[in-house]
Amino acid sequence: MNITYEFRLPSDINSFRRSVGWYELSPRQLECARNNSRFAITALDGEKEIGSARIVGDGGYQFFISDVIVRPEYQRCGVGSGMLNRLIEKALETVEPGETIMVNLMSAKDKEPFYEKLGFMRRPNEERGCGMTKFITAD
Ligand SMILES: CC(C)(COP(=O)(O)OP(=O)(O)OC[C@H]1O[C@@H](n2cnc3c(N)ncnc32)[C@H](O)[C@@H]1OP(=O)(O)O)[C@@H](O)C(=O)NCCC(=O)NCCS
Fold first, then answer.
1. Are strands 62-70 and 102-104 parallel, antiparallel or unpaired?
2. Domain span holding position 71
3. Whose CA is nearest to atom 20 of ligand 1?
4. Cα of 114 to ligand 1 centre, how many Å?
5. How far is CA 106 from the centre of its chain?
6. CATH number at residue 40
7. 10 in ligand 1 pocket by Cβ < 6 Å?
8. pLDDT in tens, the chain (139 residues)
9. What is the pTM of this model?
10. For ligand 1, atom 36, which residue shows the shortest CA distance?
11. For residue 13, is it within any domain?
């Protein structure tokens, strides 16, 4: 393996989503992801795109990690953590000294240990409530 990282979205986002059993995004949603992600990263093995992740947010204080995917055959090789460490580092380059940012994410089921190793805390805990989600399908 010769893993490298590029700060961009992968060429086929839906193929990544399919590889881990997630629903596909519509062309409009894909265009929004391309136009509005603040930071994105793609991991490559040679020419092959093997992982991707992105951050959306306001660029000032709120940063939300989204769509962290490593193709199944490349999981547990350090690619996911390699992407997130670089992505967060990139986001921090845009922040001024002394500013505190909030980096949020919604963990997929049973992936919490992966994020804990990167320093994220589980919610709810004694101080904070849980994250919440509502999926809404438009008519
Ligand atoms: C979750 C995911 C991104 C992790 O990426 P990865 O490249 O396999 O993770 P890494 O190899 O960088 O793992 C880093 C550490 O987390 C641990 N880890 C990774 N996945 C884990 C899991 N599911 N449970 C427990 N520990 C896990 C690794 O063992 C490793 O530990 P170490 O540093 O002690 O060796 C990847 O499994 C994936 O794409 N899964 C399917 C899609 C998904 O659920 N994404 C998350 C959406 S919130």
1. parallel
2. 3-116
3. 114
4. 5
5. 10
6. 3.40.630.30
7. no
8. 899 999 999 999 999 999 999 999 999 999 999 999 999 999 999 999 999 999 999 999 999 999 999 999 999 999 999 999 999 999 999 999 999 999 999 999 999 999 999 999 999 999 999 999 999 999 9
9. 0.97
10. 70
11. yes
